[in-house]
Amino acid sequence: MDALKKWQTFVLVLLICLLAGCGAASEEKVKKQLAEKWAQPEGYEVQAEMHVQSPEGAVSYQIEVWHTKPDYYRVSVTDQDPEKNQLIVRNKEGVFVISPHLQKSYQFKSEWPLKHSQAYLIESLFRDIESDKEAQFTEQDKTYTFVTKTKHSHQQQLPKQTIEIDKKSLLPTRVVIHSEDGQEKMELDFKKIELGKIHTAADYEVDPFEKAKDETASAELDDPQFETAYPLAELPGVELVEEQVMETSRGKRVILHYSGEKSFTLVQEPAAPNELLPVFAPGDPAPIDFQLGAMTDYSMQWEDNGVSYFLASTQLTTDEMIEVAASMSAASQK
Fold first, then answer.
1. CA atoms of 81 and 122, how far apart (whole Å)
2. What pLDDT score does 56 carry?
């Protein structure tokens, strides 16, 4: 009997060893494989579809990415209306945020995309995986999954992301970004990733208005009058203390001064066409209700529905500035 028990124990240990050796992959081994796979190509192209949950319902965007080492990028974002295309371009001149249909472009010096998480850039996903020492790793039949912290400019609102990676190709297939309470706020489905695709520097040159339609921009700006919009964001102890109205060459300019522990100033006026707007302080492209604008440490500027907005504060956090800006978009639609 003792011999039988010893034999059974031996077989059990052997099975455990075999399962351990041939079964689940280790997290460090997968990270090493990803580093080799994702860092190797000199360039790539990505096609993806992004779904964003907003108060009005889900909105879908088509994403196209070009990247050529070391630091050339071109990201195209198109919503359901193919005429409304926005671009982020990084080339030797700097970083540009471009809205061709509005004939508008921001230009500024920036470290983008290094500082913040970018779900559509595979090297950004790997930086998030590698830097998060508390990342959760799981293995399924066909995928590896990492749950990591994000490094968004609005990290408090969207603190976690789930990254799914195909076992066979070792390429990302899906990224889901979660809110504080775990709700899925954004989903990115990778449709195609082509490694080794290299573009020339000329492919990243910027002509902000080349594809703009003059009649579209003119139609949006025919009537310079607009209704003043007030932020819907609720910041405790903050109240509107002064509203100034002045006439400019564009029409009416409204300046709102809010006072309290989180004081800020908000300027709004009709947008002007054919402008290349420099952002003089170091900044980054900023998502405002998932529209593109420009952000610095103490200010944001963006456009929505033919109105130009500028928000300045030394007391608002980045998250709070984005919250105020997003609430302006909702307010302008009421």
1. 27
2. 64
Exposed, middle or buried by CB within 10 Å (0-12, 13-18, 19+), for 255? Answer: middle
**pLDDT tens sequence across 140-170:** 999 999 999 998 655 567 789 999 999 999 9
Confidence of residue 317 (pLDDT cuts 50, 70, 90): confident
User: Strands 104-108 and 275-279, how do they pair?
Assistant: parallel
State whether residue 163 is helix, strand or coil.
strand
d(CA 100, CA 87): 8
d(CA 226, CA 233): 21
DSSP track, 243-310: EEEEEETTEEEEEEEEESTT-EEEEEEE--SSEEEEE-S-EEEEEETTEEEEEESSEEEEEETTEEEE
Cα dist. 203→71, 91, 289 in Å?
13, 10, 29
Give the pair of three-digit tokens for residue 52: 């964003």
From residue 99, give the alpha-carbon distance in Å to each of 33, 222, 252, 314. Answer: 38, 18, 23, 28
Token match 């034999």: residue? 7
Residue 91's identity, in one-letter code, is N
Residue 65 has pLDDT above 50, yes or no: yes
Q: How far apart are CA 117 and CA 131, in angstroms?
A: 11
The Cα–Cα gap between 312 and 298 comes to 6
Enter the DSSP assignment of 131.
H
Amino acid at residue number 147: V
Say which residues have a Cβ less than 8 Å from residue 125's Cβ, sequence separation at least 6: 117, 119, 163, 172, 175
The 3-state DSSP class for residue 224 equals coil
Domains in the chain (CATH in brackets) are: 28-204 (2.50.20.10), 217-332 (3.30.200.100)
DSSP calls for 19-50: HHHHSSPPHHHHHHHHHHHHHS-SEEEEEEEE
